[in-house]
Predict the 3D structure of the following.
Amino acid sequence: MMKWEKLLARGRFGDTPGFIPTQVVRSEFEVDYDRIIFSAPFRNLQDKTQVFPLPEQAFVHTRLTHSLEVSSVGRSLGKAAGELLLKKYPILEKTGISAYEVGAIVAAAALTHDIGNPPFGHAGEEAISDFFKFHMAGKCWESHVRGEQWADLCNFEGNAQGFRMLVSKSNGLKLTYATLAAFTKYPRPSFIPHRDIARRSQKKYGFFINQLADFEQMGAFLGIEKSSPECWLRHPLAFLVEAADDICYSIIDLEDGCTMGLVSFDETVKLLAPILKDKFDPKKLKDRSNAQNLGALRALAIGELINETVEVFAQYEESMCKGNFDKALTDIIPSAKALQKITAVSVEKIYRSKVVLEKEAAGFQVLEGLLSVFSQALYHQFYHQERFSGQDKSILRLLPEDFPLKGWGSEVNPYPLLRALVDFISGMTDKYALNLYRRVKGISFPGS
């Protein structure tokens, strides 16, 4: 059984053994939050799609505003859970941990929950996967890498990309192990012989195979146990990070959809009312504008969902530590059916709306096009030098200065090279990806 005093330990990724934190003004977990806020990968989220294409209207959420809101909800969930844990486990007082620090862990992890997402949202994830699965310029690498590495490439996962970015020395974040573990909703690699579909934590994967040692280091420090030889248990706070995300995208995507006219105001109210229960008063809607009403209803709904989630967490946290509980908290709260109805309407009227589908189609074209030209140039340079053209040379000059272009050849496994290429493409903002695509395809010229 996992122990909270270890799960909340203050060790930091990259510190030498025996290092003692010296922070006085800020807790170690507040340091995590601040480092993330000021990091370039987090800043890039302001120009990445949440659901709708980056619009002229300021009210539609980007990945950045979504992440800030999820973090805010996460802090509330974590602080409330921390108060429960401190009452239940007096031994935690000896560690000096506070409820506020538990809230800071969840807030920091929630802030990063989308940091590994590529341009164009989930369509971008699928586009990168499809490139290696189906495109000749991607499939040509299959025979040069190992099976578990190919599984990583053919199933791009934003959660695993996020973990890679958070532990990367180039980003310099050096987060605490607790924040990294709370971030990791899917504590397994991509290539496993059997996936237990009953366990929510095995639905996707959370780290690439070349981050296995990093994950093992984190798990050992926090005392995170395994559910099988290949898979770990979730850190219990990861359930709260997941719930914060579920709450925000369910309620706020609906709010955006209503504001854009895809879902009527009356239908939106009807969907939110079951969550609010006796707090819903139709009479109050008459005195305010629809926008004001939407804001008020959203705030009340999120507050109610936070309370319900904390109650369920308190009920199951022991089972989480034993590895017996592995479900999404928002699937078992009293408002679960109301959230399911919101999701069904969102899929039909928002996620499959013309404007969203057009964005996804464009994303496929842009990412496939970029991967194709860069992948082909790299393959020609290292495997078919007789085909290495002037165009290939020009393309490779567009790669970042620190891109690892030396040391590759037919006798060297190119997985790290391909990982670096995917880092480059997935780290782009929507607008940068689109502009670069136009230039490498000759559709536009620099400065035009």
Q: What stands out?
A: The two ends are 61 Å apart (CA to CA). The chain has a mean pLDDT of 91.
